Each structure stands twice: as structure tokens, then as C-alpha cells.
Amino acid sequence: MRFAPLVAFALAVTFSPVTARAQGEDIITPHITDSHHIDFPCPSVKEGFVCEAELPRWTPVKIGSVELDLSPTKHVVMLLISSTLAFLILFGAARAQRRAALVGKPPKGFANFIELIVLYLRNEIILPNVGHGGEKYVPFCLTIFFFIASANLLGLLPYMSTATGNISVTATLAIITFFVVEFAGMRALGKGYIGTIVYWPHDMPFAIKAPMTLIMTPVEIIGKLTKPFAFTMRLFANMTAGHIVVLAFFGMIFLFGSWFIVPLPLIMVFAIMCLELFVALLQAFIFTLLSSVFIGQIRSAAH
Hints:
Layout: H1 6-15, H2 17-26, H3 29-32, E1 37-41, E2 50-54, E3 61-63, E4 66-68, H4 74-102, H5 109-130, H6 138-154, H7 167-189, H8 206-256, H9 263-299
Antiparallel strand pairs: 1-2, 3-4
Helix pairs in contact: 1-2, 4-5, 4-6, 5-9, 6-9, 7-8, 7-9, 8-9
């Protein structure tokens, strides 16, 4: 599988239609699928300026009759890069802010931009939705935002891959958020947390309470489970859809089989990639927003 930049693809279309068709078929799918190799640039037009480096393969771990392959994959590498990038951005901005505070001045440049984002998310999104005493959940929500944003944006770069286009990654993020939300409810409600699972209307007579409990309790449980499912599918689908659209536009070149059609798909691909830049940040924002909303809802829940 290959992933070539648009320039390499355009050169291939110009000088080698056969190579271009091969690249057109493989230019997007490796960008959203996982594998045991990573791509890096190399000076070969035939290979689409892309070479592959195999990742180490480890002996599977056996747990009873089940074998777990813990070997690193391309998406694992992308997750490590994303987490490292998010850490360096936030750590560097924090140090710059501390140095500026010591001299009584605001931070400058990129650190000032990061501080603007952090303050906006904290004061306008997280705290208003989480509610009173929500400061303890600000680090989690900010970490989620910058990690997802880093992973999404890395997926737009040549030779990189979209880790958030892997449903296992988005499901893990959703499960982590689910446990944070439920833990927040347990801390805030204490014994009253059971009321978020078992529906028991206190202001109704028992003859109505009993059937309502039997009907609404499964609804409450399903409602809890649909939230991580929605988290999983929303991020996965949005980060995959843009690349599929790009692949469809590339396919127009071979569908019409004309040199004159080449500029139009390339222009549309460029437009979609610009839109993908916005979507990458938007999906990180939505994930953070909904996380804070669900934390706030369960902390104030009462039946």
C-alpha cells in the first residue's frame, strides 16, 4: 500500500498513466487503514516518492486459547507521535506562560495562541457545562481536545496516517470518556448514582412506579451505552469520510479516461483537504464539548 502526496500523483499522471492508476488506487486507503509498516519519502517517481519501513513484529502473547498480537503498527506510531506532540505543545506553552508571568507580561507568539485556546475551552465550554467544582475535569477535557486535534491534523500530512480513522482508537477514547463520566457521577451523587441506572420516580404512587421502573430502567441503561457508541462512530466516520471523498475524486480521472479532466479532480481534492483541516479541529472540539456536557449532566442528575 502507498500514500503519495498530490504533487507526486500529478507527476505520475503526466509521465506515467499506468503508475498513476496504481497510485490512484492506493493513495488514500493506506492513509486510513492500519499496517505493520510506515511510509517515508524517497526519490523514486515509480514508487510515488514513497518507501516503506517495516515495524518490528513481536511474538504474540497467549492468554489461554487467545493470542494477542502486541506488535506496533502504523496507527500505534501515529498515536505515540500525537501524544508526544500534544505534550510538547502544552508543556512548552505552560513554560512560556510561567516565564512571562514572572516578568508580569503575557506570553507571546505560539504560546499566546495556545493560552487563548485553553482559556476559551476552560471558561466558555468546559466549566459552564460541567458546573460548580468542575475545575478537576478541565485537565481531562483539554487533554482529549489536544490529543484528538493532533491525531486528526497529522492524518492530513503526506506520509502520515489518520489514527482516529481507526475504530479501535475512537472506541478506546469513547470508553475512557465513559468511565470518566460515570466516575464523575459517582463522586457527585454518592448513593444517588444508582438513580442514573434504576429509574424510580419518587413523586408517583407505587402502582405507577413499578411498571415505570420496569420500562424506563432498560432505557436508562441503553442511554448510557449509546453515548460511547455515538462518540466512537462520530469521530471514526468523520475522519474516514473525507479521505473516501478524496479517493472518489481521484477515481473520476480514470472513470472519464481523459487528460482534460485531471485539473478538476485535483482542484476538488484541494478544496476537500482544506475542509478536512476544519473538520479535524471541529471533531476535537465536539468530542470535548460533549464530554463536558455529559459530565455536567450526570453530576446534576436526580430522579
